[in-house]
Amino acid sequence: MRFETLSVFPEVFAPYLDASIMGRAQRKGILDFEAYDLRDWTHDRHRTVDDAPFGGGQGMLMKPAPIFEAVRDIASRGDVPPHVVFFSPCGHPYDEACAQELSHMDRVLLVCGRYEGMDERAYALADEVISLGDYVLTGGELAALVVIDSVVRLLPGALGDEMSARDESFTAGLLEYSQYTRPADFEGMTVPEVLLSGDHAAVDRWRRVDAIERTARWRPDLIASADLSPQERSLAADIMAESSRPTRAASGVAGTQGGGE
Ligand code: SAH
Fold first, then answer.
1. Which among 232, 253, 120 has a CA at the least distance from the CA of 179?
2. What is the pLDDT of residue 160?
3. What is the dihedral of CA 97, 103, 108, 111, to 10 degrees?
4. What's the confidence (pLDDT) of residue 257?
């Protein structure tokens, strides 16, 4: 899969994408990446990409002309036109389902804003506008890296045999179940007995219940659309009805031990 970025800071991508799993994905040919510098599509001596907003107000906006010229030029290269993504806090919220959708595309161009954002007309080029969440970043580069990372790890072969994206948070509409490694007793905090039993069916049942409990407790907003049996749904409802709902911080690790069977 080919990812391209268009931004005024093209140098920020390589340190992340050349390391670890993203680096290996590039070496294996799973990820083909190129970072374009928006200033290459300017025509003045100062390579200007921004200008003051009409109507006044603070800061500078990205001018439409270099963005239009760059996106059209980049799109005309290669065999398939890219799916063009812009970033903005005004976009649709990004989630695992969006990552899944993008993972089926051959070529994605991620257009990163800076400053106070972009001239509104530039968004006419976008096939979709993505927001990472309800906060404001200084630029779209981090958003682009989040999208690339979350999509590439879904591509066949990217995670390798030792890891799998199958059972993780959000794949079944639930958070992931609690996981433990050695030692079985750490400073008095013990691992749930069932996980040491070697009974795989019992482990699977425990994990399912634990995932439902965690989701009901920490992300009750996910429960409505999760795929649950009537019995599981009533378990989730009971947890959500608990008056003193523990917060993630208050109930982490030790607090999860009682979960399940
Ligand atoms: N003035 C804009 C924010 C501009 S921030 C507003 O209030 O909506 C500059 C750039 O950072 C944006 O153009 C976008 O590319 C990126 N960015 C900032 N916050 C983001 C978010 N939550 N999700 C995705 N991209 C974001």
1. 253
2. 79
3. 40
4. 44
C-alpha span between 145 and 168 (Å, rounded)? 20
Taking the C-alpha atoms of residue 69 and residue 113, their distance in angstroms, rounded to an integer, is 15
What is the Å distance from ligand 1's center to 147 Cα? 14
Mutation test residue for ligand 1: of 88, 128, 132, 134, the one with most atoms within 8 Å of CB: 88
With the most atoms of ligand 1 within 8 angstroms of its CB, the residue from 61, 63, 87, 125 to mutate is: 87
Give the position of tokens 């093209």: 10
Q: Is the pTM here over 0.85, yes or no?
A: yes
Burial class for 38, CB neighbours closer than 10 Å (0-12, 13-18, 19+) = buried
CA of 48 to the centre of ligand 1 (A): 20
Ligand 1 pocket residue status of 259, Cβ below 6 Å: no
How would residue 247 be classed by pLDDT, with cut points 50, 70 and 90?
Answer: low
| Distance spanning both ends of the chain, measured CA to CA | 43
pLDDT at 254: 43
53 lines ligand 1 (CB under 6 A): no
Amino acid sitting at position 55: G
Which residue among 129, 136, 147 is best mutated to probe the pocket of ligand 1, counting the most ligand atoms within 8 A of its Cβ? 136
Domains and CATH numbers, the chain: 2-152 (3.40.1280.10), 168-251 (1.10.1270.20)
Query: Residue 133's pLDDT band (boundaries 50, 70, 90)?
Result: very high
